[in-house]
Write a structure and sequence with these properties.
It is built from six helices and ten strands; from the N terminus they run ααβαββαβββαβαβββ. By secondary structure, it is of the alpha+beta class. The chain folds into two domains: about 110 residues, RRM (RNA recognition motif) domain (Alpha-Beta Plaits); about 80 residues. The strands form two sheets. It has a five-stranded antiparallel sheet. The chain is globular, with a radius of gyration of 21 Å.
Length: about 200
């Protein structure tokens, strides 16, 4: 999307248009909000979406929904804790289609938000036993996206494989695996499997 801010700077503004309105930060209206992009071509049924996510998100005081157009909804909450919990539990889907979530940045217009990344659990299979470690699994997943290296060993060690939390750009094809080359020895094909992956463009 073209950056509207750059566009208006090229315009010739009259006195009224060029007179800046300075707004104080305490006037923010969506302090705890999530922007959600629904990757479907179907018309969004807001009532059905609310019925689906209300029992899943279990928000103490519920949430408000605003339609921003172009298959984008804004979910407004009354506290930061619930927003963080929902984002930490990605990926989310509706009607088997992926929903891309991002915390609302108050200083950025909706149309300037990329909304093309989502956090996924990536299972790393077929690693050589001698190199079966969290660090090696995370290094392998660097090609998938931005790796979250803060996860604990208990969260990622699954015995025969590791799982890694990765922020993935869903506008490009998912990575199926990677070659692991052991110094002065043979190469191995390591396979990536994606947990809870809904309908998505591969």
């Amino acid at each position: 999307m073209e950056n509207l801010t750059n566009d208006w700077r090229k315009l010739s503004l009259n006195d009224k248009e060029g007179g800046k309105l300075v707004v104080k930060k305490d006037r923010v209206s969506h302090e705890f909000a999530i922007v959600a992009r629904f990757l479907t071509k179907k018309v969004l049924n807001t009532d059905a979406i609310i019925r689906t996510f209300s029992p899943l998100w279990r928000s103490r005081n519920g949430f408000k929904v605003r339609n921003a157009g172009d298959h984008i909804l804004i979910f407004e909450f009354d506290n930061a804790e619930e927003v963080g919990k929902i984002l930490a539990s990605e990926p989310w889907s509706f009607d088997r289609h992926l929903v891309v979530l991002q915390k609302l940045a108050n200083a950025i217009p909706i149309q300037d938000m990329a909304l093309n990344t989502v956090s996924l659990w990536v299972q790393v299979h077929n690693m050589p036993i001698s190199f079966l470690s969290k660090g090696v699994a995370e290094d392998l997943c660097d090609v998938v996206g931005i790796v979250d290296r803060s996860t604990s060993d208990a969260d990622v060690d699954r015995g025969s494989f590791f799982r890694v939390r990765v922020r993935v750009d869903i506008s490009i094809p998912l990575c199926r695996g990677r070659v692991l080359s052991i110094e002065d020895e043979e190469e191995h094909w390591v396979t990536f499997k994606y947990k809870r992956l809904p309908n998505i463009c591969y």
